[in-house]
Amino acid sequence: MAKGYWIAFVTVTDPARYAGYQEHAPAAFAKYGARFLARGGAAETLEGNGYQRHVVIEFASMDTALACYHSPEYQSARAHRMAACTAEIAIVEGLAP
Known about the structure:
Blueprint: E1 4-12, H1 15-31, E2 35-39, E3 53-59, H2 62-70, H3 72-81, E4 85-93
Antiparallel strand pairs: 1-3, 1-4, 2-3
């Protein structure tokens, strides 16, 4: 089965409010077996909009990645994030093994 990936581009606009997201989101990621492959760190935007943070999260499958995003745990965390940043998030299916 192919893995699923969250790919997120984030610019934090209110660090104090974003801290609420950072406090709550780990519970959802742990519940769904997320593995962070990239989070923050050095990045260079070559095309398109530039963002402060680039995040890639691996899940066992696309269904698991989607379940995490739609879970009550993540939606609660997301409520903290919404007014604290601009973000673009896509969930993609990886290549089959």
